[in-house]
Amino acid sequence: MSTGTSPPPVVPNSYPVIGPYSGVYYTITAMGGYNINQNFQPIVLGANNPINKFDITNALQVQFSVNKFNSKLGSYNALINRFPNDTITLTAAEFVAGMTASQVISVGTYRTLYSDFDNYVNNY
Known about the structure:
Low-confidence stretches: none
Structural class: alpha+beta
């Protein structure tokens, strides 16, 4: 039986970004192929990778559509309490597709990458 009213339109989540986030927030650990040689320690992932809180003050921060992640995870199966895919891969091309400069909240410690390199060369 229909009530004659249509459901409200689906509006994507949007978080107002006033500036870079600073402090401890829930994050999802990820790994990638980008590599720079500036004495960063390798990231070792544990077997169980829960969502934890980390200080993201100096992290790269971007706004990214959750729809891409949801489509890769697949439909949630409540009977077995899981998604069909428990590991997803997001290529650099998929990440960059549709990304604009306005979606970059903060480049974190990368903001000094050029000046660090410039100082290294000048000192050499």
